[in-house]
Design brief:
By secondary structure, the chain is an alpha+beta fold. Strands 1-2-3-4-11-5-10-9-8-7-6 form an 11-stranded mixed beta sheet, sandwiched between helices. It is globular, with a radius of gyration of 20 Å. It has 10 helices and 11 strands.
């Protein structure tokens, strides 16, 4: 477990979303630890290792050393590793891998181009922005609609479905809502303000059934204003994911600032029973 001093240390030095303690522990259900300036979460036989050191620059030798230490001390069956770069010596057995980049934008004096301004004006005429600290039935309905129509990886679906629980436990998170004139929810964002230097955009949903042009632009504009109120230097906009999402982030001035690689390592081959149980669990969580 973390001491209060360790928690403060991590949040003061945090620079990637996975350094946000409450988000990581609530979503993973794991127990947080700080080992040699690396943040990890442990849940039974599974470890999430955030390979972005909280002190000094990243290098592969340090990552290899902490990976070896985690294996020796905890003997996990699975490790979810994220880092700017992966060691070439990683075992071949992995369930999933991904390469991307973190997009960030400064909160001070963002350059808002004319097309974005037009979308904002239209959205402000048709929508009402609001902040809340929890989710209502309308949020859950919109979230399920969004997840059902998008081809999302199972881990991303689980992230979405964990949001009500995360919001209930966090005193640093906010829901940014866009309501239409009929009182229907057109879109919402979930953002986290736990880290000292940045605000963290976690998820966003917009309705296709109740689509309003510029709803996402309005919410990002509100996120910029709220981030200034909290004295955040920049906003983490998440990963690029695909061309459409990258374009949206880039039109607001988001830039890829840090490399992201993810790999899920299988250190112990599961039995047939374990594989079937895991498959059934993932299917149930995806419903």
């Amino acid at each position: 477990m973390l001491t209060d001093r360790e928690k403060a240390y991590i949040l003061d030095r945090a620079y990637v979303p996975e350094h946000c303690i409450c988000l990581m522990t609530q979503v993973s259900g794991g127990e947080p630890f700080l080992i040699d300036n690396f943040f990890i979460c442990l849940k039974k036989n599974w470890i999430i290792l955030v390979g972005y050191p909280l002190k000094d620059n990243f290098n592969l030798d340090r990552l290899k050393a902490i990976l070896a230490k985690v294996k020796k001390n905890f003997r996990p069956d699975f490790i979810s590793l994220i880092a700017p770069e992966m060691p070439s010596s990683l075992p071949a057995e992995s369930r999933e891998s991904q390469s991307d980049a973190y997009f960030t934008m400064e909160t001070q004096k963002p350059v808002i181009r004319s097309p974005v301004k037009r979308n904002l004006r239209k959205a402000q005429q048709n929508l009402r922005g609001e902040f809340s600290t929890g989710m209502q039935d309308g949020h859950r309905e919109l979230m399920h609609e969004f997840v059902a129509r998008k081809r999302l990886p199972e881990r991303v679906k689980r992230l979405f479905l964990k949001m009500p629980e995360f919001l209930a436990c966090s005193d640093k998170a906010q829901v940014l809502n866009a309501w239409d004139k009929e009182g229907k929810l057109a879109a919402f964002y979930v953002a986290d303000f736990e880290a000292k230097r940045f605000s963290n955009y976690i998820i966003g949903c917009y309705s296709q059934k109740n689509y309003v042009l510029g709803a996402s632009d309005l919410l990002l504009f509100e996120l910029i204003n709220l981030s200034r109120e909290y004295d955040k230097l920049y906003i983490h906009l998440g990963l690029g994911v695909n061309a459409g999402i990258r374009r949206f982030k880039e039109k607001w001035g988001g830039v890829p600032m840090r490399r992201y690689q993810m790999c899920e390592l299988v250190l112990k081959k599961p039995s047939l029973f374990e594989m079937i149980s895991s498959l059934l669990k993932h299917r149930q969580e995806g419903l």
